[in-house]
């Protein structure tokens, strides 16, 4: 899979008949919130030692949670008629504007 467009097309193949109109919005919104919370909890626990060192198991869990979050984003994009590629481009433009003038060597 090379593009967000391809991902969005595949990710949104979930039959709409499995979801009523309310669930078409609630499912991805609530799911995205849940995944973000779980990612935050996992990273907070990992960072408790003072450095972010993830175990292989934790990395796999993060990857799974991020994959689920990306699926929810694809569903929201589909429901709002917003191509994921446009969201990614917009995000990069926002990032560029926010970091303008900052030293890239200081993180």
SSE arrangement:
Elements lengths: L3 H8 L9 H27 L8 H24 L4 H16 L8
Helix pairs in contact: 1-3, 2-3
Give a quick rundown of the structure.
70% of the residues lie in helices and 0% in strands. With 107 residues, it is mainly α.
Features:
mainly alpha, Helix Hairpins, 0% strand, 70% helix, globular, 107 residues
Walk me through the structure:
Helices cover 70% and strands 0% of the residues. With 107 residues, the protein is an all-alpha fold. It has one domain (4-99): Helix Hairpins, CATH 1.10.287. α1 (4-11) packs across α3 and α2 (21-47) packs antiparallel against α3. The longest helix is centred in the N-terminal third of the chain and has 27 residues, at 21-47.
In the predicted model, the low-confidence regions spanning at least 5 consecutive residues are none
Second-tier CATH architecture: Orthogonal Bundle
CATH class: Mainly Alpha
Query: Strand percentage, roughly?
Result: under 5%
How many structural domains does the protein architecture include? 1
Fraction of helical residues: over 70%
Write the H/E string, N to C. Answer: HHHH
Number of helices: 4
């Amino acid at each position: 899979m090379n593009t967000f467009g391809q991902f969005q097309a595949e990710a949104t193949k979930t039959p709409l008949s499995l979801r009523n109109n309310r669930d078409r919005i609630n499912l991805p919104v609530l799911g995205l919130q849940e995944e973000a919370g779980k990612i935050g909890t996992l990273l907070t626990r990992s960072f408790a030692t003072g450095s972010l060192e993830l175990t292989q198991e934790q990395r796999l869990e993060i990857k799974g949670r991020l994959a689920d979050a990306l699926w929810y984003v694809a569903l929201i994009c589909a429901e709002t008629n917003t191509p994921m590629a446009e969201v990614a481009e917009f995000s990069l433009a926002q990032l560029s504007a926010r970091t303008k003038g900052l030293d890239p060597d200081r993180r």
